[in-house]
Amino acid sequence: MSGGVDSAVAAARAAEAGHDVTGVHLALSKNPQSYRTGARGCCTVEDSRDARRAADVIGIPFYVWDMAEEFDREVVQDFVAEYAAGRTPNPCLRCNEKIKFAAVLDRAIALGFDAVATGHHVRMLDGRLRRSVDLAKDQSYVLAVLTSEQLAHSLFPLGDCTKDEVRAEADRRGLAVAAKPDSHDICFIADGDTAGFLNGRLGSEEGPIVDTDGAVVGTHSGAHAYTVGQRKGLNLGGAVDRRYVLSIEPVNNTVTVGPRDALEVDEIIGERPVWNGRAPSSVPFEATVQLRAHGEVHACRARERDGALVIELDAPATGVAAGQAAVLYDDDIVLASATIAATSRRAATAV
């Protein structure tokens, strides 16, 4: 129970369905003041109090579990290390993978519980993860990293309704969080300044911004402050045509920029694939792929090769960043997920 409306209604529905429900709030920081506060948080002291009040209204036991060390190791340190390596991580996905559905689920099973129920907007049908009926709130992308075994011990009571319906139900149930705003930003970056947070962890070292021909067109104060596809904040001056970040090289502290069409890729290699909706296949099969949270989907062909997920897009995509997840779908069914490791543009085939 995060302290938000979704997890409160999910707990209420689970209890109403006859499950023996215990509410758990995760304490993820040894110094809660360093995390977001108020309505913009998700794991703060205020959120813990909101979750406790919701549990009291529902009539279920409530506990706070200290996961600060696990969260720092698996999510915060991973976030910093990924940026230091020139990649763009998704900390919410990593939190779901390593904390909510690994550390928490393991502890829950050890204590005799059958499953972890959350307020994520997804559906489970016939043992497979599917998109929510509310596509604007669908969270299957950040849960696609879960294994089939983890999904077998998970409940998602909200996948059959919209967010507006959840809020209306919370109001009917007398839950004070009915109108509480959603949290959108990274919980462990209190002021929302990701670049400043990374500078504090990684330092700020000036380096060159170069064009595709190697010409220096500007300078930066830390390559980790950039991500593939970025256009704003490059400060290249009017003498340089509009440019986008094409790559980040942390070894030589160089950011490479170029025109938008240089961003186009149509082959993606994903590492550590998780096949949770179908068996791995070395034979290419048709699917769609989502490459960012809330990003568009692309028609593709996919297969497994040497332990990696190989995705060939039917049409080029732009802004595909290493470190993000590539999630395969068959219509609304999640088939597999992998972390993007490399991208390329296939050579045109002569007719």
TrEMBL record:
SUPFAM superfamilies: Adenine nucleotide alpha hydrolases-like. Its main location: cytoplasm. Pfam families: tRNA_Me_trans, tRNA_Me_trans_C, tRNA_Me_trans_M. Catalyzes the 2-thiolation of uridine at the wobble position (U34) of tRNA, leading to the formation of s(2)U34. Belongs to the MnmA/TRMU family. The active site is at C95 (nucleophile), C187 (cysteine persulfide intermediate). The record marks H120, Q324 as: Interaction with tRNA. ATP binds at L26, G119. One of its GO terms (cellular component) is cytoplasm. Its EC number is 2.8.1.13. PANTHER family: MITOCHONDRIAL TRNA-SPECIFIC 2-THIOURIDYLASE 1, TRNA 5-METHYLAMINOMETHYL-2-THIOURIDYLATE -METHYLTRANSFERASE. Residues 197-258 form the tRNA-specific 2-thiouridylase MnmA-like central domain. It catalyses: S-sulfanyl-L-cysteinyl-[protein] + uridine(34) in tRNA + AH2 + ATP = 2-thiouridine(34) in tRNA + L-cysteinyl-[protein] + A + AMP + diphosphate + H(+). Keywords: ATP-binding, Cytoplasm, Disulfide bond, Methyltransferase, Nucleotide-binding, RNA-binding, Transferase, tRNA processing, tRNA-binding. One of its GO terms (biological process) is methylation. Residues 266-340 form the tRNA-specific 2-thiouridylase MnmA-like C-terminal domain. This is tRNA-specific 2-thiouridylase MnmA. Residues 137-139 are annotated as: Interaction with tRNA.
